[in-house]
Amino acid sequence: MPTIVDIKNLRKAYDGGFEALKGVTLEIREGEILALLGPNGAGKTTLISTVCGITMPTDGTVTVGGHDTVTDYRAARAMIGLVPQEINLEPFEKVINTVRFSRGLFGRKPDDAALEKVLRQLSLWDKKDSQIRALSGGMKRRVLIAKALAHDPRVLFLDEPTAGVDVELRKDMWEIVAGLKADGVTIILTTHYIEEAEAIADRIGVIAKGELLLVEDKAKLMARMGKKQLEVQLTQPIEAIPAALQSDALTLSKDGSALIYSYDTRGERTGITKLLADVAAAGLVLADLVTRQSSLEDIFVDLVHDDNKSDTKLGGEGVA
Hints:
Elements lengths: L2 E11 L5 E11 L3 E5 L6 H8 L7 E6 L2 E2 L4 H6 L1 E4 L11 H11 L6 H10 L15 H13 L5 E5 L7 H16 L3 E5 L3 H7 L2 E6 L2 E7 H8 L2 E7 L15 E3 L5 E6 L8 H10 L4 E8 L2 H15 L10
Parallel strand pairs: 3-8, 3-9, 6-7, 7-8
Antiparallel strand pairs: 1-2, 1-4, 4-5, 9-10, 11-13, 11-14, 12-13
């Protein structure tokens, strides 16, 4: 897929010397969903704000659809829709007028048919004449997305779009995002809900301390860095792992009822056969075997933890 957003060596420093972004380089592909994960203060919102022209970069360049966000701001910004974290809407305005106003801000001609399509897509059409103040929090977030889509952008930034909403509405939002992708919209999502990224993203980016640690296809990342665990459940709990079974890859559950063995599925041998033989030789009786694949959350925690210890960047596609 061609690149639609091209970020090169992007830096943002503030008075006093604090660097919110430290040379971020990233290519975002047309039509993909990219999820940016990172702890609080990692630089996610600063990155979005800089790409959208809300914050001026200290150094580096950003182009959207070939338009530089500084020297050709209007053309670049017209290609972008932004859904901010904060719900900041005029409470006494009607939904339809709120969305019309956003379309006009970008110089787009009035087109009620286009606005109707957006509102129906977001299940807002029956609320079009309602005042914003009468809507639930979830519906207000849908209005924010409608505003962002009103001028037909090709790139949509969602900054913590499901923060504070319930699980059911969050899943509805995932379906909305999938529908936008089907229409060819490129979506960049920041989220604290790692299961959100795992459910809908094509690629995952991890950012910490203003640096992009990696960007990689979700499936490849999980295959490359994911591990499996085998839980050997015992018929009787034990107080400690027998000396014959001592291994860095083996731990005992808190209640002593299971041995937990971590292994890499990419290895020539997993060691499971030998483990089970050793368990039997130690006189332990198996009740059941359970396997578990590492989740994206496990991988994310490991990455950020390693970065905090070493302060070194990790390799990955799309990273300088």
